[in-house]
Design goal:
- This protein is of the alpha+beta class.
- It has one domain (about 1-90): 2-Layer Sandwich (Double Stranded RNA Binding Domain), CATH 3.30.160.250.
- It is about 25% helix and about 35% strand.
- It has one helix and five strands, in the order E-E-E-E-H-E.
- Strands 1, 2, 3, 4 and 5 form a five-stranded antiparallel sheet that branches.
- A hairpin with a 4-residue loop joins strand 3 (about 20-25) and strand 4.
- The longest helix is centred in the middle third of the chain and has 22 residues, at about 35-60.
- The N and C termini lie far apart (about 30 Å).
Length: about 100
């Protein structure tokens, strides 16, 4: 995971699930789905941004990696379509 002030980079994975696709952020254990790999990736980026925003607002830790046994980088499952860098940009605003 790489973090700049308003930029986070994680690892995403896309899997074929029946007629659709699911996506998973491996460092955050956040998932989404779509009709094709591109949509699954886009929706995952949105889900990760919302998850991070909630974590920062509530002051809770955001890292929670998937268990090693479920990490597709450890053992490639047959339905794995791609592992990719997942970049999320957003602004954090402080409110008192």
């Amino acid at each position: 995971m790489r973090k700049d002030q308003n930029h986070f980079e994680f690892t995403g994975a896309v899997f074929r699930e029946g007629k659709g696709f699911s996506s998973l952020c491996l460092e955050l254990d956040v998932a989404s789905q779509g009709r094709n790999p591109r949509e699954a990736r886009r929706k995952l980026a949105e889900a990760v941004a919302l998850y991070l925003e909630t974590c920062f607002e509530d002051g809770v830790p955001y890292l929670r990696p998937v268990p090693e046994k479920d990490d597709p980088r450890t053992e490639k499952p047959p339905n794995l379509v791609a592992v990719f860098p997942l970049k999320v940009d957003f602004e954090v605003h402080a409110v008192a």
